[in-house]
Amino acid sequence: MMAKNKEPRPPSYAVSVVGLSGTEKDKGNCGVGKSCLCNRFVRSKADEYYPEHTSVLSTIDFGGRVVNNDHFLYWGDVTQSGEDGIECRIHVIEQTEFIDDQTFLPHRSTNLQPYIKRAAASKLQSAEKLMYICTDQLGLEQDFEQKQMPEGKLNIDGFLLCIDVSQGCNRKFDDQLKFVNNLYIQLSKSKKPIIIAATKCDECVDHYLREVQAFASNKKNLVVVETSARFNVNVETCFTALVQMMDKTRGKPKIIPYLDAYKTQRQLVVTATDKFEKLVQTVRDYHATWKTVSNKLKNHPDYEEYINLEGTKKAKNTFSKHIEQLKQEHIRKRKEEYINALPRALNTLLSNLDEIELLSWSEALKVLEKRPDFQSCFVVLEKTPWDETDHIDKVNDRRIPFDLLTTLEAEKVYQNHVQHLISEKRRVEMKEKFKKTLEKIQFISPGQPWEEVICFVVEDEAFKYITDADSKEVYGRHQREIVEKAKEEFQEMLFEHSELFYDLDLNATPSTDKMSEIHAVLSEEPRYKALQKLAPDRESLLLKHIGFVYHPTKETCLSGQNCMDIKVEELLANSLLQLDHGRSNLYHDSANIDKINLFILGKDGLAQELANEIRTQSTDDEYALDGKIYELDLRPVDAKSPYLLTQLWTSAFKPHGCFCVFNSIESLTFIGECIAKIRAEASQIRRDKYMANLSFTLILANQRDSVSKNLPILRHQGQQLANKLQCPFVDVPAGTYPRKFNEAQIKQALRGVLEAVKHNFDVVSPVPTIKDLSEADLRIVMCAMCGDPFSVDLILSPFLDSHSCSAAQAGQNNSLMLDKIIGEKRRRIQITILSYHSSIGVRKDELVHGYILVYSAKRKASMGMLRAFLSEVQDTIPVQLVAVTDSQADFFENEAIKELMTEGEHIATEITAKFTALYSLSQYHRQTEVFTLFFSDVLEKKNMIESSYMSDSTRESTHTSEDVFPRSPRGGSLDYNYPDSEDDAEGPPPYSPIGDDVRLLPAPSDRSKYRLDLEGNEYPIHSTPVNCHDHERNHKVPPPIKPKPLVPRTNVKKLDPNLLKTIEAGIGKNPRKQPSRVPAAPPEDTDQSDNYAEPIDTIYKHKGFADDIYAVPEDSQNRMIKVRNSIVINTQGEEENGFSDRVSKGHGERRPSKYKYKSKTLFSKAKSYYRRTHSDASDDEAFTTSKTKRKGRHRGSEEDPLLSPVETWKGGIDNPAITSDQELDDKKMKKKPHKVKEDKKPKKKTKTFNPPIRRNWESNYFGMPLQDLVTPEKPIPLFVEKCVQFIEDTGLCTEGLYRVSGNKTDQDNIQKQFDQDHNISLESMGVTVNAVAGALKAFFADLPDPLVPYSLHQELLESSKIMDKTERLHELKEIVKKFHPVNYDVFRYIITHLNRVSQQYKTNFMTADNLSICFWPTLMRPDFENREFLSTTKIHQSVIETFIQQCQFFFYNGEIVEAPNPVACQPPPSNPVQMVEPMVPLQLPPPLQPQLIQSQLPADPLGII
Known about the structure:
Elements: H1 2-5, E1 12-19, H2 24-27, H3 34-42, E2 56-57, H4 59-63, E3 72-81, E4 87-95, E5 99-100, H5 115-119, E6 123-124, E7 154-155, E8 158-164, H6 173-188, E9 194-199, H7 206-217, E10 223-226, H8 235-246, H9 258-281, H10 290-297, H11 301-310, H12 312-349, H13 353-356, H14 361-369, H15 374-377, E11 378-379, E12 400-401, H16 408-440, H17 461-465, H18 468-496, H19 512-522, H20 526-529, H21 535-550, H22 564-581, E13 595-602, H23 606-616, E14 622-625, E15 628-638, H24 644-648, E16 657-662, H25 665-685, H26 689-692, E17 695-700, H27 711-725, E18 729-730, H28 743-761, E19 778-784, H29 792-800, E20 805-807, E21 815-822, E22 825-835, H30 836-845, E23 850-856, H31 860-871, E24 879-885, H32 889-893, H33 895-910, E25 914-919, H34 932-940, H35 942-950, H36 982-985, E26 1010-1012, E27 1018-1020, H37 1028-1034, H38 1057-1069, E28 1121-1123, E29 1126-1128, H39 1160-1173, H40 1185-1190, H41 1222-1231, H42 1278-1290, H43 1304-1316, H44 1322-1325, H45 1329-1341, H46 1353-1359, H47 1365-1376, H48 1381-1398, H49 1401-1404, H50 1408-1420, H51 1433-1445, ...
Parallel strand pairs: 1-4, 1-8, 2-5, 8-9, 9-10, 11-12, 13-15, 13-16, 16-17, 17-18, 19-22, 19-23, 23-24, 24-25
Antiparallel strand pairs: 3-4, 6-7, 14-15, 20-21, 21-22, 26-27, 28-29
Subunit structure: May interact with RASA1/p120GAP.
Domain Rho-GAP: 1264-1451
Domain FF: 267-325, 366-420, 427-481, 482-548
C-alpha cells in the first residue's frame, strides 16, 4: 500500500556518446565533437559551454578522480520533460581514448580492449568517479562542482554515434566512415538503440553529409540528426530522439534539418540580443562599469535569456561597445561645442580684420598664443590628443583644447571668421552709410513711422545692401537719437522760457488759462513742433517740468546727478576738509619777502642767457629793486628738458614765479606748450595750492636788430599769448641795445612777480579763535543752474583758493565762510551755493544780503533761468552777475557767447548790479578780490536790507524749502578787530568781460554829461524837467544810501572814437523833450514799446497802468502817483500785471520793488509772453505782435544809445552799422498816423552807406575809392593781386578757405606792412592762408562803395526771377556789362579767382554755394536794416553763386555750365516775415566792422593760442 502512495521515480537512461577516437594519427588534429555535443546537452547555458576539450592528458590528470584511469567521461545527468509532461533523467557517458602527453600513446587502464569493443560496452563502472565539466577542472577539482557517477554498474540504454561532417583536420572522411562502420557493427550487437549525430554541421561539407545519410539509409531504423554544438542546433533533439527509441511510450520527435533548425535558433538569439541591447541602452553614463550594470540587470528576464543564449562574454562586449559609443558621442558633442565656441573666441582675440586678413591659419595661431586673454579661451594640455585625456570629463571647463585648432574644422572656422569680419565690416559700413543717408533727410521727424520713410530710401545703395532687420534697426537707432535730442532740446527750451514758469504762485497748481498761455508761447518754437508726432511725450515732459518747478528738490532735479546742489555738497565736503587740514601751511608772510625763487624757462640756451644777465646785474646773487635788496635763486631750464615738471617744484625749491623768455615763433610755441603742461599738471594732482597760482611772465628777447621784420609779429603773438594766459608781457623797450635783455625788462618782470606773490598769498595772518563761528556778518547766496557746462570747482575757486576760506557750521553742507577785511574791519561772510531751483525758497523766505547769480555764456537756458530768478528778487538786495566761459577769446569767436555776455552786462547795467566773468582757462580771475566791490556794496546796504526784511508784513511765517540759514537774522553786524592786511584792502583787478582795455561807459572826463542816481547808476543829463522836485520826492529810499564813488580803473581805453561819435550823435539828436503835465490824449505816433518809467521824469496818462510800465515810484502824500504815459488813482483795485498794492501805500517809505520792474530787459521779456497770449489787448495797453511786424525798427533808448534795441549790428557778415535817428522817426510817425489793421508795404528807399572805419590806423590805401588804386596798365589793385596770388600758390586746397576766419592780428599786420611797403612779400611774413583771405575780404569791405554797385542791385534781383535759365543768364550778363569799367575788371578778377577755388571743392570743401555765402555780403554790402531785404538774402547769395558757377560764360564768352541752377527762381513773398530783432551786443574795438568780427578765430600760426 505504501509503495502505491509513493510518487513514481522518473525513468533514468544512460546514453553513451561514441565516435572516432584515438591518437592524432587515427583521428587527426581535432576530435569529431563528442565532448562539445555532450557539454552543450548537459550544460546548455552559453557561459557553461567550453568549445575546447583535450584528450591528451598527463598521467596525473588521467589518474585523477574525474578521469579516474578510465577512457570514458561522466558528463552528469539531465532531467528532461517530454511533450506529454513525463520527465526522465538522462545520464551522459562519453567514450573516448586519452593519450599520454609523454608517449602520445593511449594511457593504460583497467580495460585493455580496443576502443571499438570498449565503446560498445553496455555496462560501465568506476568507483567515486567525478562528473567532468571542462579541461581546467583536472587537477583543480575542488574549485568546481563535484558530483559522482552513480555507484555500481551503469547500464547503457542507447548509443549516440557522432560523425564529423566538417572538413576535418588531417583526417580523411572515408577513414572516419570506415571506423564508424566497424563501430556500428560492434554497437549493433548490444541490441541497443543507436542514433547518428552529424556533428559540426555549421562547417558542413555537403557530400560528407550525403554519405552519412546514405550510410544510415543502408541500416535499419538508423536516424541521422544534423547538429551543431557551437550554435546549439538540434543537440537536444538527438538526445530526445534516442530516449524515444528507448521508451516507445514517448512521442516520436520531429527531426528538423540543420538549416531550418539553425534559423529557428538564430531567431531566438536575435530576439534576445535586441531585448538585451535595449536594456543596455538605458545606461547613459559612459563611466558605468559592467560589474555595476550586470548586478542591476541580473534578475531581468531579457538579461538572463541573453546570458543563457550568448553568454556573459558577449553581453559584456555588447555593453562595452555601447559604452564606447556613449564616450564617442560625448567627445563628438564636446568637439562640436568647442568648434561652435571657436568663432566667439576668435571674435574676442582676433577681431581686428586689418591684422589677420592676410594671415594663414598657422600664422594666426602664433598671433593667438601671444594674446593676453589667450588662457581665458584656450587650454594647452600636457597630453594629447585632447579626446584621450581627462579634459573631456571637465564639463565646467569651457576652454578650447589648443591641439584641437590643428584640425581642418578649426581652420575652416578661421576662414569663415575672416570672411565674416570682411562681410561685417562691409555691413557696418553700409549701415553707417544708411545712417548718414537718414541724417541727410531733413523731413524725418521724431516719432515718424518707418513706413513713411521707406519710400524715400528704396533706391539707396546702402539700403539695398543691408537686410530689412538692419534697416529697421538703423532707423530705430536714428529715431532714438533724434527723439532723445529733440527731448533734450525741448527741455532746454523750457529752461530758456523760465519766465513762463517761475512767475507762478508755487503753492498752487497751474490754471487752465496758464497752461493755455504756456502752450501758446511754446507752440511758436520749432523745438516744440519737433515733437508734434510725440505729443504725449511732449506733454509728459512739460508736466514733469512744471512738477519740478512746483516741487524742486535734489531728488527730482531734471539734471539727475548733475544737480548743482549734489555737486556742491560733494565738492565742499572734500575741499573744506583739505583746507582745514592744511590751514596751518596756508598763511605766509609775504610782506617781508627777502628771497625770490625764480624758475627761468627758455629754448636753445635762452634761459641760461637770461639767468646770466640777471646775475651780471646782481651782487653776490643779491638784486637791488626799488630800494630793497632781494636774494635771488635762479633755476634756468630748457623747454625741451624731459625733466621739466620734476625740476619745477621740489621740496627744496618752490618758485615764486616763472620767467618765460622767447625770441622766435618756434620758441614761443615751446613756451606755450610748456605752460599748458605745467598748468595741467597742477590742476590734476593739486599737490600744492600755490602751484596752480604760479605766476608766469613772458619776456621778449631783443633781436639785436631793431628793424627786424619779425619783431612786430613776435610782439603781437607774445601779447596775444599773455592775454590768453592772463599773465604779464614784458616787451623789448624802444631804442637799440647791444644785449638781448635790458635792465628795465628784468626790473619790470621782478616787480610783476612780487605783485603776484602778494596777490596770491593773500597776506593773511593765522585766523584767531572766534567764539561763535556760526554767526556771519553777511549772508550771500550764489546761484548756478544745474547742468551748466562748467565745473563747480571753477565757480567756487574764488573762495576755495583763498586762504581765508573755512567750513560753515555743522549741517550746512552747501555753505562756506570767508574772513575778509571790508572797509576797516574784518567781516565774516557766509557763502551759500545753491541751484536756482533750491534758491527760490531762500529768495522767498530767508534773509539774504546779496546774490551772486552765475550763468553759462554758452547756454541760453542758463540766462533764461537767471532772468526768471532775478525778476522776482527785491531790488534792495545787491546782485553780482557772473558769466562763465572758457576764455576771453570766446567773446570774439562765438556770436552766441558774445550775445549772452552782452545781455548779462546789459542787465547788470540796468539794475545797477556788478558784472564779472570766470574763465576756465585762466587763473587770474579766480580770485576772491573779484567780489570785493560787491561785498562792500552789500555791507553798505546791509541795514536797509535787514530793515526791509523785518518790515515785510506779507512774508509767510512758514516755508517748505530746506533750511539754508539760521532763522533769526541779526539786526547788526558783529565786527572783529583783526589786524588789517593788505590783500583785503585791495580793489578788484581791472577787469572787463571783454578785455582789460575796453571801457563800456564814458571816461571820467566825460562824466560831466552824466549824473548818478541814488543807486549809483549813471544816466545822461539832458534838459531838466520842470517837475524835477517830484522826481526827487518820489525816489527817496530809506535809509539813504550814498552814491557809490567811482572806482578808478587803470589801463582802460575808451571805445573807438567813431563809435563814441555815433553815440554822441544819437544823444544829441534825441534830447529829452519837455513833457506836458497832463496831455489830453496819448499821441498816436508814440512808440508803445518805450513806455518805461524814467528816473528823471514821469508823464501823466488818462488810462490805467500800461503793460510796459516796469517801475512804480511812490508818493509820500498818498496822492495820485505819476508814471510815464499813465495816471493811477489811489483805489483799492486788484493789482495788475504783477504790481502789488504798494501803489496805494505811501507814508514816506517805499516798499522794495522787484528787479523786473527796474530792468527794461527783464520786464520786456516777461511782457513778451503776455503779448503773445493777449493779442486782443488795446493799442494803448500792449505792443502786439502784428504791430511789431509792421514796425520798421525800434526806437533807441534815450538813456543809453549803446544798449538800445536799435539793431546797429545785425547777425550777418559785413553788416554796416546804421544809427537810428529819433527825430526822423518821430516825423515819419506824425506824417502818417498809425493804423493797426492796415498792412501796407513800405516804400523802398535807396540809401548810400558810409561804412565805419574798421582800422585803428590811418591809411592812404585801404578805404580809398577803387578808382584811385588802379591804372589803365594795372586794372587790378596791387594788394588784391598779391593776396590772390599768395592764396592760389600756397593755399588753394586749404579746407574752409574764406569760411574759416583768419587771425585778426595777422590780418591787420598784413595791411599795416603793405601800407609801409607795397613791395612786401606775403610769403616772408609767415602768415597763414586764412589770414591773407581775411585781409582780402577786409579790403573789399573797406571800400567806400561796394564792388557791385547799389544802382544795379534791383536789376540783378529782378533778373534772377526769370524762370528760363538761358534767358536769365543772358540778362545777368547784360547787367554786368553796366558795371563801371574799374568795378567790372576787379569783379571779373575776383569771380575768376573764386571759380578756381570752387574747382578744388573736393579738398577745400568750398563749393560755389559756400563761397557765395561767405562773399556776397562783402561784394554787395546790402542794407540789413531794410525789412524787405531780409526775405531776399537768399536771392542775393544765389546771384553771386551764379556768377561763380558761370564765370566762363559771363566774362570769357564760354559755354553755359550744365550744373544745378542755384539761383532762386521763385519771386520773394509779397509779405515777408519779419525777423525777430536780437538784443544789440556790445561791439568792441576795432568797432563798427562786423565782417571782421569773425565767428571763429583761426588756429594761431604758433599753434599755442
